[in-house]
Amino acid sequence: MKLEIERATKLYGRTRALDGLNLKIDSTRVLALIGPSGGGKSTFLRLLGGLEIADSGKIEVNGHQLENDPTALQAYRRRNGFLFQQFNLFPHLDARSNITLPLEKVHGHDAAKARAKADHVLDRFGLLEHASKKPSQLSGGQQQRVGIARAIAASPEILFLDEPTSALDPEMTAEVLELIQELADAGQDIILSTHEMGFARAVANQVAFVAAGKIAECAPPAILFSNPSSPICERFLSRVMRY
Amino acid sequence: MTRRQHIANTLAAILVIAGTAWLCGMIFGELGKQSNWAKAWDYRESLWRGWLHTLGIAFAALVGSMVFGLLFLFGQRSPLPVVRCCCRAFLEFVRDTPLLVHLLFGYFVIFAPLLSRPLAEAGFEDKIVIGIVLLALFEGAYLGEILRGGVESIPRTQWDSARAVGFTPFQIYRYVIFPQALRRVLPAIAGLFVSLIKDSSLLNVIGVSEYFYNTKNFISRSYAGLEGYIPLALGYLVLTLPVAWLSHWLEKRFRHET
């Protein structure tokens, strides 16, 4: 994927969530956003995913400029997948219906085709036995995996993952990270924000350090983790890597 | 329950039954002598017609209140501040004044001068039509507030997720928000519909010949007592109890589902 972001700014009330953020990446497969909480990772991801629009600046993803045009943004969201920290699934529908509903209503599949697709992706993720369970009957890790299955079912161009494991215990975190790794290996374009440094290092082609509403630096993980060039990133890494 | 509670429970039951029996005995002893159920039978046609009117009015006002309720819900969530403010002001006015006042004011001051003649010419009974509209507006205001509460209780991530999978705003309400919100507010809505049925009796003040109006006429013409009031209460119970039961049943069903 190709990203071109120039001086992106986003305000929530008087808080500057993004403060003139710049980023230019010509081609990469998996981009990980790391950095302190409240630094702007989630906001940046929401802008990239077309869920919100910048107050100023330019955001271009794969040559598409994201502007304040609800119809175009909706079409953009249909082409991509997005997963939040938790509560992604619609609680009144079982796992399978969570996947088939968007396939039928958004992508125009007929019921049989949607079901076949949903079962295929559930099977691929080892979730087929849970297909008729409601989200409340699934563990947190299973819920996130069904969430990813839903996001992936319509073959998205880019999969956006906003701290997909932050609400999970270590064991469930591992099961979700394995799944993401598998998707990355299969060639899926992914942009994710995460606090799992080891995972970012292992899976990402590029890692961007986001703090105070800006990208402090962006480099391949081997370089960024072993030899950070910005003092703020170095300080952050030395603190989170200590334990 | 412990042994003591069993004994206390039995005693309470005996007390309640004895008390009710004593009260009924007093009332029937006093009034029963004068009661003449043949009188009620003589008026059966008028009472039956009134009951059917009440049924029809309640049903029409129920449908109307759903339309108004949805309008008020979306009005209050409108991106346009003027629409939002007007909705708020109107709802506040409706909810803070008695229905009796709306009916009198709405009928005699607003609607009757404007609509009575055209409605009569079109072959409608103007009082019934206007009464239904006024009742639907009043209950719709409450329904709008109930629905707003339900919709606003759905967490933000559900909206985000629905947007992320690419739903249109209409689809978000239709497939994600309403199914969850309605489940939460179902008991409140059922309560409102029961109120609506009972409130329809107030339409007698603008002269709609519904069940209460016709029963009142029967009582004042024939000097009836118990034989007028008992069918009156039963007539409304027949309408309200099914709604209450239906809501309990739906509530239980949805609780098992989620």
| Beta-strand content estimate of chain B | under 5%
Quaternary structure type: heterodimer
Categorize the overall geometry of chain B.
flat
Helix content of chain B: over 70%
* Percentage of residues in strands of chain A: 15-25%
CATH superfamily of the largest domain in chain A: P-loop containing nucleotide triphosphate hydrolases
Q: How are the secondary structure elements laid out?
A:
The complex is a heterodimer of chains A (243) and B (258).
Chain A: E1 3-12, E2 15-25, E3 30-34, H1 41-48, E4 56-61, E5 64-65, H2 70-79, E6 81-83, H3 95-105, H4 111-124, H5 140-153, E7 158-162, H6 170-185, E8 189-193, H7 197-203, E9 206-211, E10 214-219, H8 221-226, H9 231-240
Helix pairs in contact in A: 3-4, 3-5, 4-5, 5-6
Chain B: H1 3-31, H2 37-42, H3 44-76, H4 81-95, H5 99-121, H6 126-152, H7 156-164, H8 169-199, H9 211-222, H10 226-257
Helix pairs in contact in B: 3-6, 3-9, 4-6, 5-6, 6-8, 7-8, 8-10, 9-10
Descriptive keywords:
heterodimer; A: 243 residues; alpha/beta; Rossmann fold; 6-stranded mixed β-sheet; 4-stranded antiparallel β-sheet; 9 helices; 10 strands; B: 258 residues; mainly alpha; MetI-like fold; 10 helices; flat
